[in-house]
Write a structure and sequence with these properties.
The protein is built from eleven helices and ten strands. The longest helix is centred in the N-terminal third of the chain and has 21 residues. With 274 residues, it is an alpha/beta fold. The chain has a domain of 182 residues: Vaccinia Virus protein VP39 (Rossmann fold, 3-Layer(aba) Sandwich), CATH 3.40.50. The strands form two sheets. It has a seven-stranded mixed beta sheet with strand order 3-2-1-4-5-10-6, sandwiched between helices.
Length: 274
C-alpha cells in the first residue's frame, strides 16, 4: 500500500519543529486531557512492565514515558528540542533526548518496546519512522502506536469538516502526509504488516472529552496544534463563527447538563519484531 509522505520534507520538518517547540505546553494543557486516556492501553499493547527497556518516540510532554516509569520500566523519550525541555521538567523519572524519529540514534535491537503516541502523523515520512521503530526493537519485542480515528462525528472530525467547508484553505503550509491515513483498523493493521511487524493488530479505542462549547474545542486547537492552528489563525472572525456554529450543531447528540461529552476515538496499532 502507498504510504503518504511530505513532498517538501525539510520544510515540513522545520515547520513542525518550530511549531511544537512553541505549542507543546498548550497541547499538554488541552489535548492532553484526551491523549492521556490511551496511555495505559498503549503500554499494554507494547507489553511494557517492570524492567522493560522502552523507547517513546515523538514523546511530547512525556505521558507514555511517565506511566512506563511508574510500571518500573526504563523509559527513554525522543522528540524535538523544545518539546523534550518540557518533558524533562514534567517527568524526571525518565530520560529524554532530542532527536529525529526518521534516524533514531540507537543501534539495532536496542529496546524491548517502542511506542509512539499520536506522533506518526507529524513526521515527514511515516513509513521511515515505523521502519526505524522496527529496527531498534529487539527480536520478539513489541511496538505500539496511536493515531486519531477518522470518525466524522468525533470532535476532530467536526473540526476538519468545518474547516474544509468554510475556511479559506489558501494558507502557505509545507505539504505534509494526511493526518488520517492510518485511521482505521484495517489501514493500521495492513500498514504494520507491510512494514514488517509480525502479529499486527489494531483496535478502536473509545475516549471522550468533556467540553463546554465548540469555542472551547477551537481554543484547544489554537493552543495545542500546529498545522490546523495555522489555518484557523488565517481566517476572519466571520469564518471562525461559521466553523464554531457547525461544530456546535454537531455536538447536539452529546449534550448533557454538564456540557458536551465529545467523542475523540483513537486507533491503537501494535506488532512484534520477528
Amino acid at each position: 500500500m502507498l504510504i503518504e509522505k511530505s513532498k517538501n520534507p525539510a520544510e515540513y520538518l522545520d515547520f513542525e519543529r518550530t511549531g511544537w517547540g512553541a505549542y507543546i505546553g498548550g497541547y499538554n494543557d488541552t489535548f492532553g486531557a484526551v491523549t492521556r486516556q490511551t496511555v495505559q492501553a498503549t503500554l499494554d499493547a507494547a507489553r511494557v512492565g517492570g524492567g522493560t527497556r522502552m523507547l517513546d518516540i515523538c514523546c511530547g510532554p512525556g505521558m507514555l514515558s511517565e506511566a512506563a516509569a511508574q510500571r518500573g520500566a526504563q523509559a527513554t523519550g525522543l522528540d524535538f528540542p523544545g518539546v523534550v525541555e518540557l518533558a524533562r521538567r514534567l517527568v524526571p523519572a525518565a530520560e529524554f533526548l532530542s532527536g529525529d524519529a526518521l534516524d533514531l540514534p540507537f543501534p539495532d535491537n536496542s529496546f524491548d518496546a517502542v511506542v509512539c503516541g499520536y506522533g506518526v502523523m507529524h513526521v515527514p515520512d511515516p513509513e521511515k519512522a515505523m521502519r526505524e521503530m522496527l529496527r531498534v526493537l529487539r527480536p520478539g519485542g513489541h511496538a505500539a502506536l496511536t493515531v486519531w480515528d477518522n470518525d466524522p462525528k468525533s470532535g476532530l472530525g467536526l473540526v476538519y469538516r468545518a474547516v474544509h467547508d468554510f475556511a479559506n484553505l489558501n494558507v502557505p503550509l509545507p505539504h505534509g502526509p494526511g493526518i488520517f491515513q492510518f485511521s482505521s483498523i484495517e489501514k493500521m493493521r495492513d500498514t504494520l504488516t507491510e512494514i514488517g511487524f509480525a502479529k499486527a493488530e489494531a483496535t478502536l479505542f473509545p475516549q471522550y472529552w468533556r467540553l463546554q462549547s465548540a469555542r472551547q474545542l477551537l481554543d484547544a486547537v489554537h493552543e495545542g496544534t500546529v498545522r490546523t492552528r495555522a489555518v484557523l489563525a488565517a481566517q476572519t472572525p466571520d469564518v471562525i463563527a461559521k466553523i464554531a456554529a457547525y461544530i456546535e450543531a454537531g455536538f447536539d447528540g452529546v449534550r448533557s447538563d454538564a456540557g458536551y461529552n465529545v467523542p475523540m476515538p483513537a486507533i491503537i496499532g501494535s506488532g512484534t519484531k520477528p
